[in-house]
Amino acid sequence: MITRYSMLRLLALFLLVTGGFFILPGNAPAIAQEARLVVQGSGLPVPRFVTTKSAKVNMRLGPGREYPVAWVYKKKHFPLKVVAEFDVWRKVEDPDGSTGWIHSPLLTLQRFVLVTEAVAEIRAEPEAEAALTGVAERGVLLELLYCEKGWCRLSHEKARGWVPASHVWGILESEADSVPEADRKAR
């Protein structure tokens, strides 16, 4: 027997899998609101950034093992943006804009960012004139400590310092300008 709750859950899953696009009777196109859709998810905010937990993580076309693998991430700590949740599955977007579903145990809340500039200069202080402590090329992963005033404090086994937030992928716009005081003190 199909209950109203199960119908709503199926509709939510349909909207998550199809990206919110559907056709109404009469062939009139309609777009469902691009909502932060969460169906029995983690309770954490959406959108948010996560990273891959291991060096091999499958991204699937839908929220389940029965869906085909669309992409395989082969780098531990690769940043991904969670854009929706369905039970234990997370719909993610990668730096290239590709989207798909990953089983949540394959993801971690540990934060890393991806350098997007040809060369990102790592500075001792969050200022363009500050001393240079290192450089990171495009594609390098750096651990995110926190951000403030458009700069992010990052760490790598070979360097630690500040990089402009605009030179990395893996942070929300709201994170680039401020960080909770408690997080700053913890670092």
Write up this protein.
This protein is elongated. The N and C termini lie far apart (53 Å). Strands 3, 4, 7, 8, 9 and 10 form a six-stranded mixed β-sheet that branches. A five-stranded antiparallel β-sheet has the order 16-15-14-11-17. 14% of the residues lie in helices and 43% in strands. It contains three helices and 17 strands. The longest helix has 15 residues, at 4-18. Strand 8 and strand 9 form a beta hairpin. The protein has two domains: 4-22 and 36-108, Roll (SH3 type barrels), CATH 2.30.30; 112-186, SH3 Domains (SH3 type barrels), CATH 2.30.30.40. The protein is mainly beta and 187 residues long.
List keywords for this structure.
single chain; 187 residues; mainly beta; SH3 type barrels; 2 domains; six-stranded mixed sheet; 3 helices; disordered N terminus; disordered C terminus
Describe the protein's topology.
Elements: H1 4-18, E1 21-24, E2 28-31, E3 38-39, E4 48-52, E5 57-60, E6 69-73, E7 79-86, E8 89-93, E9 99-103, E10 107-108, E11 112-115, E12 119-123, E13 132-137, E14 141-148, E15 151-156, E16 159-164, E17 168-169, H2 173-177, H3 181-186
Parallel strand pairs: 3-7
Antiparallel strand pairs: 1-2, 4-7, 4-10, 5-6, 7-8, 8-9, 11-14, 11-17, 12-13, 14-15, 15-16
Brief summary:
Helix content is 14%, strand content 43%.
CATH architecture of the largest domain: Roll
Largest sheet: 6 strands, mixed
Q: Count of helices?
A: 3
Structural class estimated from helices and strands? mainly beta
Element order: H for helix, E for strand = HEEEEEEEEEEEEEEEEEHH
Question: Strand content of the residues, in percent?
Answer: 35-45%
How many beta-strand segments?
17
In whole angstroms, how far apart are the ends?
53 Å
Which CATH first-tier class of the largest domain would you pick?
Answer: Mainly Beta
CATH topology-level fold name of the largest domain:
SH3 type barrels
Low-confidence stretches: 3-8, 20-35, 179-187
Shape: elongated
The residue-averaged pLDDT reads 82
